[in-house]
Protein backbone atom coordinates (compact mmCIF):
# COMPACT_ATOMS: atom_id res chain seq x y z
CA UNK A 1 0.00 0.00 0.00
CA UNK A 2 1.38 3.37 -0.96
CA UNK A 3 0.57 7.09 -0.92
CA UNK A 4 -0.03 8.70 -4.33
CA UNK A 5 -0.21 12.30 -5.49
CA UNK A 6 -2.53 12.86 -8.46
CA UNK A 7 -1.94 16.13 -10.35
CA UNK A 8 -4.80 17.54 -12.47
CA UNK A 9 -8.42 17.82 -11.34
CA UNK A 10 -10.07 17.53 -14.76
CA UNK A 11 -12.23 14.76 -16.22
CA UNK A 12 -9.44 12.18 -16.10
CA UNK A 13 -8.28 13.27 -12.62
CA UNK A 14 -11.82 12.73 -11.34
CA UNK A 15 -11.79 9.10 -12.55
CA UNK A 16 -8.27 8.36 -11.28
CA UNK A 17 -9.20 9.68 -7.83
CA UNK A 18 -12.41 7.62 -7.70
CA UNK A 19 -10.67 4.46 -8.87
CA UNK A 20 -7.75 4.83 -6.44
CA UNK A 21 -10.28 5.28 -3.64
CA UNK A 22 -12.01 2.08 -4.74
CA UNK A 23 -8.72 0.17 -4.32
CA UNK A 24 -7.68 0.88 -0.71
CA UNK A 25 -5.53 -2.26 -0.58
CA UNK A 26 -3.19 -0.58 -3.11
CA UNK A 27 -3.57 3.14 -2.40
CA UNK A 28 -3.24 3.84 1.31
CA UNK A 29 -3.46 7.58 1.04
CA UNK A 30 -4.61 9.74 -1.88
CA UNK A 31 -3.70 13.37 -2.57
CA UNK A 32 -5.21 15.39 -5.43
CA UNK A 33 -3.59 18.67 -6.46
CA UNK A 34 -4.40 21.03 -9.31
CA UNK A 35 -4.16 24.69 -10.24
CA UNK A 36 -7.66 25.30 -8.90
CA UNK A 37 -8.15 24.01 -5.35
CA UNK A 38 -11.96 24.26 -5.65
CA UNK A 39 -11.97 21.57 -8.36
CA UNK A 40 -9.96 19.20 -6.14
CA UNK A 41 -12.31 19.80 -3.23
CA UNK A 42 -15.34 19.11 -5.42
CA UNK A 43 -13.87 15.78 -6.55
CA UNK A 44 -12.89 14.92 -2.95
CA UNK A 45 -16.49 15.57 -1.88
CA UNK A 46 -17.88 13.32 -4.62
CA UNK A 47 -15.42 10.54 -3.77
CA UNK A 48 -16.28 10.77 -0.07
CA UNK A 49 -19.99 10.48 -0.88
CA UNK A 50 -19.47 7.47 -3.12
CA UNK A 51 -16.74 5.56 -1.27
CA UNK A 52 -16.39 7.06 2.24
CA UNK A 53 -12.69 7.60 1.43
CA UNK A 54 -11.10 10.93 2.43
CA UNK A 55 -8.93 12.59 -0.22
CA UNK A 56 -6.33 15.23 0.70
CA UNK A 57 -6.28 18.25 -1.60
CA UNK A 58 -3.80 20.99 -2.49
CA UNK A 59 -3.29 23.80 -4.98
CA UNK A 60 -0.23 23.66 -7.23
CA UNK A 61 0.97 25.30 -10.40
CA UNK A 62 2.57 22.35 -12.14
CA UNK A 63 4.45 24.66 -14.53
CA UNK A 64 6.50 25.75 -11.53
CA UNK A 65 9.15 23.21 -10.41
CA UNK A 66 9.93 24.78 -6.98
CA UNK A 67 6.20 24.81 -6.16
CA UNK A 68 5.92 21.16 -7.16
CA UNK A 69 9.00 20.23 -5.14
CA UNK A 70 7.61 21.96 -2.05
CA UNK A 71 4.31 20.08 -2.40
CA UNK A 72 5.98 16.72 -3.02
CA UNK A 73 8.26 17.20 -0.01
CA UNK A 74 5.19 17.97 2.10
CA UNK A 75 3.14 15.01 0.84
CA UNK A 76 5.99 12.47 0.43
CA UNK A 77 4.18 10.23 -2.07
CA UNK A 78 5.52 7.00 -3.54
CA UNK A 79 4.65 8.29 -7.02
CA UNK A 80 2.92 11.00 -9.00
CA UNK A 81 0.05 10.28 -11.37
CA UNK A 82 0.21 13.17 -13.82
CA UNK A 83 -3.19 13.82 -15.41
CA UNK A 84 -2.75 17.57 -15.88
CA UNK A 85 -1.97 18.66 -19.45
CA UNK A 86 0.90 17.41 -21.66
CA UNK A 87 2.55 20.84 -21.24
CA UNK A 88 3.35 19.96 -17.61
CA UNK A 89 5.07 16.58 -18.23
CA UNK A 90 8.65 17.85 -18.10
CA UNK A 91 8.26 20.12 -15.07
CA UNK A 92 6.64 17.27 -13.15
CA UNK A 93 9.40 14.85 -14.23
CA UNK A 94 12.00 17.41 -13.08
CA UNK A 95 10.27 17.68 -9.71
CA UNK A 96 10.14 13.87 -9.39
CA UNK A 97 13.91 13.68 -9.98
CA UNK A 98 14.55 16.39 -7.44
CA UNK A 99 12.43 14.71 -4.75
CA UNK A 100 13.07 11.00 -5.51
CA UNK A 101 9.50 10.08 -6.51
CA UNK A 102 8.24 7.76 -9.31
CA UNK A 103 6.24 9.19 -12.23
CA UNK A 104 3.34 8.17 -14.50
CA UNK A 105 1.40 10.04 -17.22
CA UNK A 106 -1.14 9.46 -19.99
CA UNK A 107 0.00 11.81 -22.76
CA UNK A 108 3.42 12.74 -24.10
CA UNK A 109 5.00 16.16 -23.73
CA UNK A 110 3.88 18.91 -26.06
CA UNK A 111 5.33 22.43 -26.03
CA UNK A 112 2.73 25.15 -25.53
CA UNK A 113 3.87 27.20 -28.49
CA UNK A 114 4.21 24.41 -31.07
CA UNK A 115 1.51 21.89 -32.11
CA UNK A 116 3.91 18.96 -31.95
CA UNK A 117 3.92 15.98 -29.65
CA UNK A 118 6.62 13.32 -29.49
CA UNK A 119 8.45 11.20 -26.95
CA UNK A 120 11.96 12.52 -27.62
CA UNK A 121 11.77 15.09 -24.82
CA UNK A 122 10.73 12.50 -22.23
CA UNK A 123 12.96 9.70 -23.54
CA UNK A 124 15.84 12.13 -22.96
CA UNK A 125 15.22 11.66 -19.19
CA UNK A 126 16.05 7.92 -19.31
CA UNK A 127 19.55 8.09 -17.89
CA UNK A 128 18.61 10.55 -15.14
CA UNK A 129 15.71 8.33 -13.96
CA UNK A 130 17.91 5.22 -14.13
CA UNK A 131 20.68 6.87 -12.13
CA UNK A 132 18.18 8.11 -9.54
CA UNK A 133 16.70 4.60 -9.18
CA UNK A 134 13.29 5.97 -10.23
CA UNK A 135 10.74 4.78 -12.76
CA UNK A 136 8.67 6.85 -15.19
CA UNK A 137 5.80 5.09 -16.97
CA UNK A 138 4.68 6.99 -20.08
CA UNK A 139 1.29 6.84 -21.76
CA UNK A 140 -0.81 4.86 -19.29
CA UNK A 141 -4.23 5.94 -20.61
CA UNK A 142 -6.33 4.16 -23.24
CA UNK A 143 -4.65 5.32 -26.42
CA UNK A 144 -1.81 5.58 -25.68
CA UNK A 145 -2.02 2.99 -22.97
CA UNK A 146 -4.42 0.09 -23.31
CA UNK A 147 -3.91 -0.06 -27.09
CA UNK A 148 -0.16 -0.52 -26.44
CA UNK A 149 -0.87 -3.26 -23.89
CA UNK A 150 -3.32 -4.98 -26.28
CA UNK A 151 -0.52 -4.96 -28.88
CA UNK A 152 2.06 -6.32 -26.43
CA UNK A 153 -0.41 -9.04 -25.37
CA UNK A 154 -0.94 -10.07 -29.00
CA UNK A 155 2.81 -10.19 -29.53
CA UNK A 156 3.28 -12.33 -26.43
CA UNK A 157 0.40 -14.78 -26.97
CA UNK A 158 -0.76 -14.83 -30.60
CA UNK A 159 1.92 -13.87 -33.12
CA UNK A 160 5.42 -14.68 -34.27
CA UNK A 161 5.26 -11.73 -36.68
CA UNK A 162 2.86 -8.79 -36.37
CA UNK A 163 2.84 -7.50 -39.94
CA UNK A 164 -0.14 -5.14 -40.18
CA UNK A 165 -1.45 -3.27 -37.13
CA UNK A 166 -4.58 -1.07 -37.19
CA UNK A 167 -5.71 0.77 -34.06
CA UNK A 168 -9.40 1.68 -34.19
CA UNK A 169 -10.83 4.30 -31.84
CA UNK A 170 -14.58 4.88 -31.90
CA UNK A 171 -16.48 7.15 -29.57
CA UNK A 172 -20.15 6.54 -30.32
CA UNK A 173 -21.20 8.86 -27.48
CA UNK A 174 -23.73 11.67 -27.87
CA UNK A 175 -23.60 14.68 -25.49
CA UNK A 176 -26.32 16.69 -27.21
CA UNK A 177 -24.15 19.76 -27.92
CA UNK A 178 -23.57 20.97 -31.49
CA UNK A 179 -19.83 20.84 -30.72
CA UNK A 180 -17.85 19.74 -27.68
CA UNK A 181 -14.70 17.70 -27.18
CA UNK A 182 -14.45 14.75 -24.83
CA UNK A 183 -11.15 15.80 -23.40
CA UNK A 184 -9.26 19.06 -23.16
CA UNK A 185 -10.45 20.99 -26.28
CA UNK A 186 -7.10 22.63 -26.96
CA UNK A 187 -5.20 19.33 -26.93
CA UNK A 188 -7.96 17.54 -28.84
CA UNK A 189 -8.22 20.16 -31.62
CA UNK A 190 -4.45 20.43 -31.97
CA UNK A 191 -4.31 16.64 -32.39
CA UNK A 192 -7.02 16.20 -35.01
CA UNK A 193 -6.26 19.24 -37.16
CA UNK A 194 -2.61 18.23 -37.62
CA UNK A 195 -1.43 16.28 -40.67
CA UNK A 196 -1.92 12.51 -40.42
CA UNK A 197 0.92 9.99 -40.60
CA UNK A 198 1.27 6.22 -40.75
CA UNK A 199 4.18 3.83 -40.64
CA UNK A 200 5.03 1.60 -43.59
CA UNK A 201 8.17 -0.40 -44.41
CA UNK A 202 10.30 1.47 -41.91
CA UNK A 203 9.23 4.99 -42.91
CA UNK A 204 6.54 7.49 -41.91
CA UNK A 205 4.12 8.54 -44.64
CA UNK A 206 2.47 11.92 -44.15
CA UNK A 207 -1.17 12.53 -45.08
CA UNK A 208 -3.42 15.58 -45.08
CA UNK A 209 -5.82 15.83 -42.10
CA UNK A 210 -8.78 13.46 -42.74
CA UNK A 211 -7.37 12.41 -46.13
CA UNK A 212 -8.20 8.70 -45.62
CA UNK A 213 -11.63 7.57 -44.52
CA UNK A 214 -13.22 4.13 -44.07
CA UNK A 215 -16.57 2.88 -42.83
CA UNK A 216 -16.38 0.40 -39.97
CA UNK A 217 -19.12 -1.47 -38.15
CA UNK A 218 -18.20 -1.17 -34.46
CA UNK A 219 -19.82 -3.74 -32.19
CA UNK A 220 -22.56 -2.20 -29.99
CA UNK A 221 -22.04 1.20 -31.67
CA UNK A 222 -22.81 0.62 -35.37
CA UNK A 223 -21.37 1.84 -38.64
CA UNK A 224 -19.17 4.95 -38.33
CA UNK A 225 -16.75 6.85 -40.56
CA UNK A 226 -13.20 6.55 -39.26
CA UNK A 227 -10.28 8.71 -40.42
CA UNK A 228 -6.56 8.08 -40.49
CA UNK A 229 -4.71 10.20 -37.88
CA UNK A 230 -1.26 10.25 -36.39
CA UNK A 231 -1.46 9.15 -32.77
CA UNK A 232 1.31 9.10 -30.23
CA UNK A 233 1.35 5.39 -29.34
CA UNK A 234 2.59 4.61 -32.86
CA UNK A 235 5.91 6.31 -32.13
CA UNK A 236 6.83 3.89 -29.35
CA UNK A 237 5.01 0.83 -30.73
CA UNK A 238 6.90 0.98 -34.03
CA UNK A 239 10.11 0.89 -31.97
CA UNK A 240 9.08 -1.72 -29.41
CA UNK A 241 7.04 -4.19 -31.52
CA UNK A 242 9.42 -6.11 -33.70
CA UNK A 243 9.03 -6.40 -37.46
CA UNK A 244 5.85 -4.37 -38.02
CA UNK A 245 5.42 -3.69 -41.75
CA UNK A 246 2.60 -1.19 -41.41
CA UNK A 247 0.83 0.58 -38.53
CA UNK A 248 -2.12 2.93 -38.82
CA UNK A 249 -4.44 4.69 -36.37
CA UNK A 250 -8.10 5.42 -37.13
CA UNK A 251 -10.54 7.59 -35.19
CA UNK A 252 -14.26 8.13 -35.80
CA UNK A 253 -15.71 11.62 -36.27
CA UNK A 254 -19.26 12.67 -37.06
CA UNK A 255 -19.98 15.03 -39.97
CA UNK A 256 -21.12 17.85 -37.64
CA UNK A 257 -17.86 17.66 -35.65
CA UNK A 258 -15.80 17.86 -38.84
CA UNK A 259 -17.86 20.76 -40.19
CA UNK A 260 -17.22 22.75 -37.00
CA UNK A 261 -13.49 22.02 -37.20
CA UNK A 262 -13.43 23.18 -40.82
CA UNK A 263 -15.06 26.48 -39.86
CA UNK A 264 -12.68 26.98 -36.90
CA UNK A 265 -9.75 26.37 -39.24
CA UNK A 266 -11.09 28.63 -42.02
CA UNK A 267 -11.45 31.57 -39.66
CA UNK A 268 -8.28 30.89 -37.67
CA UNK A 269 -9.94 30.00 -34.37
CA UNK A 270 -7.73 26.93 -33.98
CA UNK A 271 -4.52 28.96 -34.30
CA UNK A 272 -1.86 28.92 -31.58
CA UNK A 273 -0.32 32.17 -32.83
CA UNK A 274 -1.10 35.11 -30.50
CA UNK A 275 -3.27 37.92 -31.93
CA UNK A 276 -3.97 41.44 -30.70
CA UNK A 277 -7.53 41.82 -29.35
CA UNK A 278 -8.77 45.02 -27.73
CA UNK A 279 -5.34 45.99 -26.51
CA UNK A 280 -4.25 42.57 -25.30
CA UNK A 281 -2.68 39.47 -26.76
CA UNK A 282 -4.88 36.39 -26.97
CA UNK A 283 -4.30 32.94 -28.44
CA UNK A 284 -7.28 32.00 -30.61
CA UNK A 285 -7.41 28.31 -29.64
CA UNK A 286 -7.37 29.24 -25.92
CA UNK A 287 -10.22 31.68 -26.52
CA UNK A 288 -12.13 28.91 -28.36
CA UNK A 289 -11.46 26.52 -25.46
CA UNK A 290 -12.97 29.04 -23.05
CA UNK A 291 -16.15 29.13 -25.17
CA UNK A 292 -16.59 25.37 -25.45
CA UNK A 293 -18.26 23.13 -22.85
CA UNK A 294 -15.90 21.89 -20.14
CA UNK A 295 -15.28 18.19 -20.95
CA UNK A 296 -15.66 17.43 -17.24
CA UNK A 297 -19.29 18.65 -17.49
CA UNK A 298 -20.27 16.20 -20.25
CA UNK A 299 -20.70 13.20 -17.92
CA UNK A 300 -24.36 13.51 -17.01
CA UNK A 301 -25.48 14.18 -20.60
CA UNK A 302 -23.38 11.69 -22.59
CA UNK A 303 -25.05 8.47 -23.73
CA UNK A 304 -23.81 5.67 -26.00
CA UNK A 305 -20.59 3.67 -26.01
CA UNK A 306 -16.93 3.74 -26.93
CA UNK A 307 -15.31 0.84 -28.76
CA UNK A 308 -11.51 0.95 -29.02
CA UNK A 309 -9.29 -1.89 -30.15
CA UNK A 310 -6.45 -3.24 -32.23
CA UNK A 311 -6.61 -5.50 -35.31
CA UNK A 312 -3.45 -7.34 -36.23
CA UNK A 313 -2.62 -9.48 -39.27
CA UNK A 314 0.51 -11.60 -39.07
CA UNK A 315 1.75 -15.13 -38.65
CA UNK A 316 2.04 -17.82 -35.98
CA UNK A 317 3.99 -21.02 -36.68
CA UNK A 318 4.21 -19.90 -40.32
CA UNK A 319 0.40 -19.77 -40.62
CA UNK A 320 -1.52 -16.53 -41.32
CA UNK A 321 -3.39 -15.20 -38.27
CA UNK A 322 -5.73 -12.20 -37.83
CA UNK A 323 -6.90 -11.09 -34.39
CA UNK A 324 -8.91 -8.26 -32.87
CA UNK A 325 -8.83 -7.18 -29.21
CA UNK A 326 -11.21 -4.45 -28.13
CA UNK A 327 -13.02 -2.90 -25.19
CA UNK A 328 -16.55 -1.52 -25.23
CA UNK A 329 -17.41 1.04 -22.57
CA UNK A 330 -20.79 2.59 -21.76
CA UNK A 331 -20.77 6.35 -21.01
CA UNK A 332 -23.69 6.23 -18.57
CA UNK A 333 -22.23 3.28 -16.64
CA UNK A 334 -18.98 5.26 -16.27
CA UNK A 335 -20.91 8.26 -15.01
CA UNK A 336 -22.77 6.17 -12.49
CA UNK A 337 -19.52 4.85 -11.05
CA UNK A 338 -17.29 7.95 -11.19
CA UNK A 339 -19.37 11.02 -12.23
CA UNK A 340 -17.40 11.18 -15.50
CA UNK A 341 -18.06 10.27 -19.15
CA UNK A 342 -16.47 7.35 -20.98
CA UNK A 343 -13.45 9.10 -22.50
CA UNK A 344 -12.30 10.29 -19.06
CA UNK A 345 -13.09 6.83 -17.65
CA UNK A 346 -11.21 4.87 -20.32
CA UNK A 347 -8.17 7.10 -19.64
CA UNK A 348 -8.40 7.31 -15.85
CA UNK A 349 -8.85 3.59 -15.16
CA UNK A 350 -5.63 2.58 -17.00
CA UNK A 351 -3.77 5.41 -15.25
CA UNK A 352 -4.83 3.94 -11.91
CA UNK A 353 -3.92 0.41 -13.11
CA UNK A 354 -0.46 1.59 -14.27
CA UNK A 355 0.13 3.01 -10.78
CA UNK A 356 -1.14 -0.25 -9.28
CA UNK A 357 1.36 -2.23 -11.41
CA UNK A 358 4.19 -0.04 -10.07
CA UNK A 359 3.05 -0.12 -6.45
CA UNK A 360 2.54 -3.90 -6.45
CA UNK A 361 5.96 -4.33 -8.07
CA UNK A 362 4.65 -6.12 -11.19
CA UNK A 363 6.25 -3.32 -13.18
CA UNK A 364 9.10 -1.59 -11.41
CA UNK A 365 12.53 -0.83 -12.78
CA UNK A 366 14.50 2.40 -12.89
CA UNK A 367 14.30 4.33 -16.15
CA UNK A 368 11.72 5.83 -18.51
CA UNK A 369 9.44 3.29 -20.19
CA UNK A 370 6.51 3.07 -22.54
CA UNK A 371 3.81 0.79 -21.30
CA UNK A 372 4.28 -1.97 -23.92
CA UNK A 373 7.78 -2.62 -22.58
CA UNK A 374 6.35 -4.52 -19.58
CA UNK A 375 4.61 -7.91 -19.24
CA UNK A 376 1.04 -7.20 -20.43
CA UNK A 377 -0.60 -10.04 -18.48
CA UNK A 378 -1.12 -8.47 -15.01
CA UNK A 379 -2.38 -5.25 -16.62
CA UNK A 380 -4.82 -7.20 -18.84
CA UNK A 381 -6.13 -9.06 -15.78
CA UNK A 382 -6.60 -5.77 -13.93
CA UNK A 383 -8.52 -4.26 -16.88
CA UNK A 384 -11.07 -7.05 -16.53
CA UNK A 385 -11.31 -6.49 -12.77
CA UNK A 386 -11.39 -2.68 -12.81
CA UNK A 387 -14.17 -1.89 -15.30
CA UNK A 388 -12.60 -2.18 -18.76
CA UNK A 389 -13.18 -5.81 -19.83
CA UNK A 390 -11.83 -6.81 -23.22
CA UNK A 391 -12.68 -9.29 -25.96
CA UNK A 392 -9.93 -11.15 -27.82
CA UNK A 393 -11.06 -12.94 -31.01
CA UNK A 394 -9.85 -14.32 -34.28
CA UNK A 395 -11.25 -12.10 -37.01
CA UNK A 396 -11.80 -12.13 -40.74
CA UNK A 397 -12.13 -8.32 -40.86
CA UNK A 398 -9.77 -6.99 -43.52
CA UNK A 399 -9.34 -3.24 -42.89
CA UNK A 400 -7.80 -2.82 -46.39
CA UNK A 401 -10.90 -4.24 -48.04
CA UNK A 402 -13.29 -1.77 -46.33
N1 LIG B 1 -4.04 8.46 -23.25
C1 LIG B 1 -5.31 8.73 -23.40
O1 LIG B 1 -6.08 7.84 -23.77
C2 LIG B 1 -5.87 10.07 -23.08
C3 LIG B 1 -7.19 10.36 -23.42
C4 LIG B 1 -7.73 11.58 -23.01
C5 LIG B 1 -6.93 12.50 -22.33
N2 LIG B 1 -5.63 12.20 -22.07
C6 LIG B 1 -4.78 13.16 -21.34
O2 LIG B 1 -5.25 13.24 -19.99
C7 LIG B 1 -4.89 14.52 -19.45
C8 LIG B 1 -6.07 15.12 -18.73
O3 LIG B 1 -7.17 15.26 -19.62
P1 LIG B 1 -8.57 15.87 -19.15
O4 LIG B 1 -9.57 15.55 -20.16
O5 LIG B 1 -8.78 15.48 -17.73
O6 LIG B 1 -8.24 17.42 -19.24
P2 LIG B 1 -8.94 18.63 -18.44
O7 LIG B 1 -10.34 18.24 -18.08
O8 LIG B 1 -8.67 19.85 -19.21
O9 LIG B 1 -8.11 18.64 -17.06
C9 LIG B 1 -6.78 19.02 -16.98
C10 LIG B 1 -6.54 19.50 -15.57
O10 LIG B 1 -5.17 19.84 -15.49
C11 LIG B 1 -5.07 20.97 -14.67
N3 LIG B 1 -3.94 21.80 -15.03
C12 LIG B 1 -3.67 22.41 -16.21
N4 LIG B 1 -2.58 23.15 -16.12
C13 LIG B 1 -2.12 23.00 -14.85
C14 LIG B 1 -1.02 23.52 -14.15
N5 LIG B 1 -0.14 24.34 -14.72
N6 LIG B 1 -0.88 23.17 -12.86
C15 LIG B 1 -1.75 22.35 -12.24
N7 LIG B 1 -2.81 21.83 -12.86
C16 LIG B 1 -3.00 22.16 -14.15
C17 LIG B 1 -6.31 21.77 -14.93
O11 LIG B 1 -6.39 22.47 -13.73
P3 LIG B 1 -7.44 23.44 -13.11
O12 LIG B 1 -8.74 23.06 -13.71
O13 LIG B 1 -7.30 23.13 -11.68
O14 LIG B 1 -7.06 24.84 -13.48
C18 LIG B 1 -7.36 20.72 -15.23
O15 LIG B 1 -8.20 20.44 -14.17
C19 LIG B 1 -4.38 15.35 -20.64
O16 LIG B 1 -2.98 15.33 -20.63
C20 LIG B 1 -4.87 14.58 -21.85
O17 LIG B 1 -4.06 14.76 -22.98
C21 LIG B 1 -5.08 11.00 -22.40
Give a description of the structure.
This protein has 402 residues and is an alpha/beta fold. Helix 13 crosses helix 14. It has helices spanning 11-21, 37-51, 65-75, 89-99, 120-123, 126-132, 146-157, 185-192, 233-240, 255-266, 284-291, 331-338, 342-359, 376-385, and strands at residues 2-7, 27-34, 56-59, 79-82, 102-105, 135-138, 161-171, 196-200, 203-207, 213-218, 222-229, 246-252, 275-277, 280-282, 305-316, 319-330, 367-370, 390-394. Strands 7, 8, 9, 10, 11, 12, 15, 16 and 18 form a 9-stranded mixed sheet that branches. Strands 3-2-1-4-5-6-17 form a 7-stranded parallel sheet, sandwiched between helices. It is built from 14 helices and 18 strands. The chain starts with a strand and ends in an 8-residue tail after the last strand. It has 2 domains: 2-138, 3-Layer(aba) Sandwich (Rossmann fold); 146-338 and 389-401, Dihydrodipicolinate Reductase, domain 2 (2-Layer Sandwich). Bound molecules: NADP nicotinamide-adenine-dinucleotide phosphate (NAP). Residues 8-13, 34-36, 39, 60-63, 83-86, 88, 106-107, 141-145, 183-184, 187, 295-296, 343-344, 347 line the site of NADP nicotinamide-adenine-dinucleotide phosphate (NAP).
Instruction: Classify the beta-strand content into a percent band.
Output: 25-35%
The number of helical elements comes to 14
Secondary structure class reads alpha/beta
Which blocks of ≥5 consecutive residues have pLDDT under 50?
A: none
Named at the architecture level, the CATH assignment of the largest domain is: 2-Layer Sandwich
In CATH, what is the homologous superfamily of the largest domain? Dihydrodipicolinate Reductase, domain 2
Amino acid sequence: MKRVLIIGAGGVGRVVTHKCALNPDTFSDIWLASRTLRKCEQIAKEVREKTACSIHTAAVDADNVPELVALINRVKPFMIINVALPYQDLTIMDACLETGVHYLDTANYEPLDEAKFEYSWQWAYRQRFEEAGLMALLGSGFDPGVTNVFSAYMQKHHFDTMDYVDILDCNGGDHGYAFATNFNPEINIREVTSNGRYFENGAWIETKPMQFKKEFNFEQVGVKNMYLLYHEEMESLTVNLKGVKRMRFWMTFGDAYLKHLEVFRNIGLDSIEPIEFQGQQIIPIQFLTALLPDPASLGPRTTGKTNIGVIVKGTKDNQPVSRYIYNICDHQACFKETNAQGVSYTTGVPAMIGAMMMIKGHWMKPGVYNIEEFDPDPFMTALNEQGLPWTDIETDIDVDAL
